[in-house]
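Two records follow; treat each independently.
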Amino acid sequence: MRTAVTAATALTATGLLAIAPGATAFAAEPANSSGLSANVQPGAVPEMYKSGTGPRVRVNQVGYLTNGPKNATFTTGAEKGLPWQLKDAKGKVVASGTTTPQGPDAASAHSVHTIDFSKYATPGKGYKLVVDGETSHPFAIGDKLYDNLRQDALRFYYTQRSGIAIDDKLRPGYGRPAGHVSQGETGDLAVGCVNNGCDYKLNVKGGWYDAGDQGKYVVNGGISAFQLMNQFERSKTAKTAQAAKMGDGTLAIPESKNKVPDILDEARWEQEFLLSMQVPDGKQNAGMAHHKMHDESWTALPTLPHQDTKKRVLYPPSTAATLNLAATGAQAARVFTPYDKKFAEKNLAAAKKAWAAAKANPNMAASGDSGSGGGGYGDWSTQDEFYWAAAELYLTTGDKEYADYLQNSPLHKDAIWSDTGFDWGNVAQLGRLDLATVPSKLADRDRVRKSVVEGADKYLAMVQKNPWGMPYAVSDRYNWGSNAQILNNMVVLATGFDITGDVKYRDAVLQGMDYILGRNVLNRSYVTGFGTSYSVNQHSRWYAKQLDKKLPPPPVGTLAGGPNSGNEDDLAKKQLAGCVGQYCYLDDIMAFASNELTINWNAPLAWVTAFVADQKGASAPADQR
């Protein structure tokens, strides 16, 4: 059983400190949790969670780009630098140096040293760092280390699909019948409103299951589809982007070889669902989008989609959901025009209709009431959604109406780059990023581009200050979905590189990936299947091998949510009471607060790993030039 590291713990010999809890920081609402009322099927009792943090030398367990920065973190109470050695697979010392003391770190309750071995640039496998008798997990140095991850992070979405049988030939071990395709109330072909709140039913088949549950949510689906389409659109503007790596036939999905890039085929599966959530003409609130749909009450773990017997219901429309549809519809109209003009036109028409409906109903808030059976995704402020939607509509149409809205929005010039980054509830940054990168005649486009670089500078400073090398500055309080927040901040850094070509931004992205893939206090890669010690029991109703050995674990390339100081689930309350920062994580299927999987968390993982994989043959790190 794991012992939580709390603020009262002290073990100076290994650098563990007694650090008082910091001031209360914002903890993201657990709106995307699929386990707020998690229960298990009779007899499905998970094994007791056990964990150790492994060697005190923390590294990127996948590895480092040949000409990229190479950094590690060592926990120790030593006040002075310690000698380190880099050994190859045969045990030969190939580089050496001295650690740099960084002092106490509130986020880990440790005193830490950092190691920089960036000057070593010989490709190979099986490297290990040795410090003070401690030997790191093995890692590689090379330029193709992220090629598999860039594909696997996207392949995650096929097995999340609703309304289609998953072909075991395409995903061995993950084949299953289609879920929620019946005509009755347990299917998605004719879904009515909760509490009989509307006089129509909608066919909302398709889309992606949101997370560990089988609900489907427009605001979370919106940002997820956006980031896949944005990843594709980047290939049209960024100098280092490799468009062929996301082309037709790259993801092994049913649509492969249809002359459409696979990443767009996958995004379309969700976008079709978003379109289906729009209120029909002639009905009350026509043009608005329903906020979400899911089971009327929670299902148990494990429950495969085709085994779900709960009634499916639509929840009322919201301004936030409607503007998500407006934004992604406009974006889809741009990216799909060369491949399917009719689909592009359908999206643009829906986007314009949604924009008009949202302007007519600007204060139709989503309360956040989950209603049992699904996450709430409450959103009371929609200024950011209006800005994002206006940006996408302007970039697609060039119409003055949207340009004027942008120029008059206070968000157009605000410093919108928060410490914890953008997410489904904070989307103005999405509009700013696209305005900076998608070609247009926007009057102040140069200023917008400069503002994105300023955001990248902010996150760069975080990386340079953080002894774990990631763009995150929340002291000892980590938020719900902290890994995705870090990755989204890395998207801004990567965009700073795309705009300027300055390798300091690229290097910061690479260091951020070090944290995700093992350079953290738990010595854990948070991506299933990558590294020596990785997350494999993410909260899911059907990737549930921990509960039922006949079921699969999460697919390779699945991101875990990451440390969360809120400890909202019962297991965390029991095992992590008083935990500090990075220690607030459990790799257990019942630990939904820190270990869920979601479509909006894998989206930035896919985006960032594609960016990193694109940096083959990159120049030396900024501080080595």
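The next record belongs to a different protein.
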Amino acid sequence: MILTICLFTCTVCLIIAYLWIVSHSYGYFKRQGIPGPPYRFFFGHYKDLWSAKSVAKQLQEWTRQYGSIYGLFAGTTPMYVVSDVDFLEKVYIKQFSSFHSRRLPIILRLQTGNKIHLFGATGLRWRRQRHIISPTFSGAKLKLMVPLVNQCIEAMLNKLSDIIDDKNTDINIYKLYKRMTMDVICK
């Protein structure tokens, strides 16, 4: 009998603690003074985003309603949605050491598994990969690539004009664009 009462009491205490932690988490943006759409307990904004025809359009609508910086919940995890370009520039360039990682969407985590790549890496792994790759994409090196990219674009446009001359032909622009991209990468 005492064991049953202890187990019941512990279970009730754990449930109350969990509910308090979750409700405290949902108060995050309110404590920060950040606006945001109303959330659903436990699901956050997942249900709203899943039921929307287009996630991008739903986010645009919320941006119109709540401004360029507002808060969403991925389940019980708070996330900022920022569409202010000047603010993003400050965060990603000037305060990079504080904001060097981002949360990867669940879909990408499931698709990539344990594979290591720049889009899926976080924390120190991401910082190391970025440190290795960044010199390749410096402003000076990108300027050197412009003539090569233009040459590949010209070749694609010539091929496109040849195809257009034959008016009965359908154009698979994706296939042409894929070839042009490979040309740029190979040069």
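Discussion point: The mean pLDDT is 80. How would you locate this feature using only the token line?
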